[in-house]
Amino acid sequence: MKLSLKTLLIISFSLVIVISISIISMMTYYSMKANMSAQSYKIMQNISDFAIDKSKTYMNVATDASHLTRNLENKNVISITNQKELVNYFYEQMAINQYFSGLYYASTDGSFLMLLKDATGYLKKDISFNDNGKREVKISYNDKNMKLINEQTLDKDKFDPRIRAWYVNAVQHKKSTWTEPYIFYTSKKTGITISTPIYSENNVLLGVIGIDIETESLSSFINNLKIGDNGRVFLVNKALKILSLPVEKNKIRTMDSLRENSIIKLAYNELKKQTDVKSIKKEYFLTFKNGNKNYQAMFLPFKIGELEWTVGMYVLEDDFLGILKDNNIFNILLIIIVGLISLFISIKISNYISNPILKLRDMTKKIELLNLNESDVNPNPIKEINELITSFNKMKINLKESYLDTLYRLAVASEYKDNDTAEHISRIGLYSEAIARKVGLSEDEIYILKHASAMHDIGKLGIPDRVLLKPGKLNEEERKIIETHPAIGASILKNPTSNIMQMGRDISLYHHEKWDGTGYPKGLKGEEIPLFARIVSIVDVFDALMSKRCYKEAFDENKSRKIIEEGKGTFFDPKVVDAFEECFEELVNISKTNSLKPKYKT
């Protein structure tokens, strides 16, 4: 037996409410305690997810770093000799990405350029070699606008970037590598470094770019998260460095450095009983004691690029359970009352839920057939349903645009070697749309024709360049070759899955047929020729007459009009020619306003 969505919703709501009320009514104190513990788990899980999301959002700057290296390659500014542009680019990136505290580039010959940011401005360090091979080291101090404040030369500086870990790791792994968190030498702040090797087109190593990303604000955020009055959240890496605790004596604190009675350490000691704390693979939820106090703890591992970190937290049970125990009876009564009210409201809600979903179902069936010109589903008062409808409508629009864009690009490809590529296809669609309205086609038919017309010369993809691009009159052999392009186009578009492609195939195959049967490739005549092909036949000739070609100058509108009229009843369908006459001024305007930039719209 199949149930309607509305009936299923009412039954589901009723069953859930009745069962929930029954369970709540039979709960004892201990079952409530279990539920409260589960609630505590959910709260901790939500906070863990929040902390992870914040961490990932913060560290997504790594993506910017990857983009930076690619941009530097593409812009050809990865060169120690192009120092001014490289420094400007570093400055721009540090201004955009607030977490970048330093960018530097080291060449294989030992040349080095570094730009560091602090509260007052920027420090630039430059290591270069003069024409005599002498090593020169300069440091300059600049304000926040990169205006030079002071510059000095360091004669005794021995710094060699090629022996630094970030350089060595990038070269050895031949890809972007992350460091574990450490204390930056200059700023004395905690951070990580991503380094990326740069290669020439011949795969020869040119150097390595390094980017320092401060994590101090992330650590402060995590450290300030609270769970109840006595809970805490902390962030640990696989080396057991506690990234969320303040730095102590210029060192990141580790698990081993904590006191034995530290709650964080007690939680980790409990975790040790279940897994290797340096390689946590899944979420752990556990309980432990400190004296006569019970604690709950959670550990949730996550990855950011190559970094493997763990969000840990603990909470004193009484922080949550004490309050929940006091409100036990009140919560039960409240849930029962709300449940009864919800039972009535659920019947009303089902109407709001089922109707738009049924509409989405019907629309989905149409989209399966690529009927993408249907109207959008109307908004719904329920937020989640409305978001689904909005997403569905956007999906339909995006699918429609992607489909038409693909179709359009395929059409452009067919005339890529001509000088009038996209403009010609745009005009053909607009001409066809104007004539179709005069002929009396429906809006759906006009929509299909407008976009299907783009496929009219797709078969030219199969015509040799020596024929297609010949500047002059074709001989008999070449004429026969060019006349194969309708059949080639039909072959390209065979077995279409949408109305647009079906009509595009017909237009491609038949748009060179003539009303009197003297056309090609099949010699159809009169209404044997599909109407869409008859319309495109006229507009294709009209556009060719109005456009400059390698073998002729553009004709004016009067001469072009006369030629079309002379073909009435012989080359062209008389009714379509009449429609052409009715909208002639509009066609001329389309030709003039679409000759420089395509106006192709969906």
From TrEMBL:
Gene3D superfamilies linked to this entry: 6.10.340.10, Hypothetical protein af1432, PAS domain
PROSITE patterns per UniProt: HAMP, HD_GYP
Limits of the HD-GYP domain: 399-596
Domain HAMP positions: 351-404
GO cellular component, one term: plasma membrane
Pfam families cross-referenced by the UniProt entry: dCache_1, HD_5
Protein name: Metal dependent phosphohydrolase
Protein's organism: Arcobacter nitrofigilis (strain ATCC 33309 / DSM 7299 / CCUG 15893 / LMG 7604 / NCTC 12251 / CI)
